[in-house]
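2 proteins. here.
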Amino acid sequence: MLVVLARIDDISVYRAIESLSKTDSPLKKWAVIALQQSRMLIQSTLMDTPGIFISTGLGGQNGMLRYFCVFLYRNPGTLLEFQHQIICNEITVALKPYKGILEQIDFFEDYCTLHLLFPLNADLKSIFEKTIDECNLYGNFLQRNMIITNVKKLSEEEIKSILQKKK
């Protein structure tokens, strides 16, 4: 119902959503999102220019979006310590020109996961492809395929399910 209400270009509807967003109810989080959508609609109508609303399940910080990324190993198993270090070094170098941030990196059997912050205008595909190419100069141990999302952090089961479907 909040999604439907948020699409109505009416200040009284906006105020109703606003009051719901200030209550301590189970719908509060949804009301906040609906309020943002309603605000964008009203602003766009009043200013006669379309607004932009970016929604991401992982959030962001200081004009950057948070991404969850999975690098896949070329061979099944775990990587060696020096390969861990290569990935860390190369992703840090790739992030630097964009003032991006590597928040976390975890190594598993068959893949590693990264939590990153990137500016909205960063070309993720080319950045990650270049990073993988640089890593592979030291032993060709990463696949060129990868998983990138800003919707949510994938669980080990979800990652393994995606990998099974690819096979």
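next one coming up
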Amino acid sequence: MGKYFGTDGFRGEANVDLTVEHAYKVGRYLGWYYSRYHKARIVIGKDTRRSSYMFEYSLVAGLTASGADVFLLHVTTTPSVSYVVRSENFDCGIMISASHNPYYDNGIKIIDGNGYKLDAKIENLIEKYIDGLSDPIPFATKDDIGRTIDYSMGRNRYIGYLMSIPMRAFKNKRVGLDCANGSSSAIAKAVFDALGAKTYVINNEPDGLNINENCGSTHIEVLQNYVRENGLDCGFAYDADADRCIAVDEYGRVVNGDMILYICGNEMKRKNELVHNTIVTTVMSNFGLYKSLDKVGINYEKTAVGDKYVNENMGKNGHVIGGEQSGHIIFSKHATTGDGILTSLKVMETMVENKKTLAQLCDGIEVYPQLLINVRVKDKKAAQEDEDVQKAIKEVEEKLGNDGRILVRESGTEPVVRVMVEALSDELCHEYVLKVVNTIKAKGYAV
């Protein structure tokens, strides 16, 4: 990770950690970088945060001042920006979003011309420019100044693309969608309606301040209650920029990213579409997923946490499905990034194809009890490397033996250390997580 860019772009509190000046300079550098040999074409999307408009205008000013033409998708999802970039020959794309973070945070995600997250080497060059450590960039003049173009048609083409993917209609399926008052509010219902589902939508009235507030994939209990109360067949919850999806079965039980990988991986194997018979996971995936995949004869690989690393593994080895427990699922045949709406379509298609409920599709997966606690800290590195914290982690590892595991890692997007334990019971998870969390707090690292 760099000074400003983490595993998922440049993120922080709007006008505190990430300012309009930062956004302007990001635009200046990208506009110059991609306009060195031809007139650059750069597309921008944003989520529904109040500050997203402010950052959009700052980026546009920087990009056009450096000579790039800018195409505005307006409120849309991260995967739609990726789709438009790669399918319509743009030099790069920018998504303004802080994903699952609260409304007062925001972020700048940069997507390269192939639809993947920008190479860290270019991010490092942007950081040097922001800090005044590189040569000045000339301003474009006269007819070299860039234009700004409304490009809402790009979002509409993405909606049409999503509609074309399922091979079965969802006729008479009662589906709940929680749009987190974010980007999917403008897209998800239209897709499900077009495919024949009876669609029931909640949290799709964004006001700039209510994004992720007690809704979406990080507050799945809202959708759980909604599915149960309305007798729906299933439900899908997205995060703010809709690059992740968590499902709920007909009983209101959570179907997380690990379980979605199991369901869709099994279906792909049944159809002889699971290339190399392998699913790509991260180190945060549940022990139970691996045991369940062993039973059905599917191989798996593990990467560091972050869909960026899952994507790298898939691209390098030719794997076709991978993802995270948090709901970032990548289907490389259709997308280059996690896509929450696409994921929900794939789960629905599997239900219809097999004439099974979502609960029935989950029957084969065994899930170990798991507890994750996030500790907000002053210094992530110091907190993790502290001698007493390391001692507490080692003691937990010894007690767990082969019946579980502990994982302590820093967040790539927030000043947070994540402590996760899997064990044979919820009680053991709670005991062992608190042992490490309390040590971090006792040593004065917690905010």
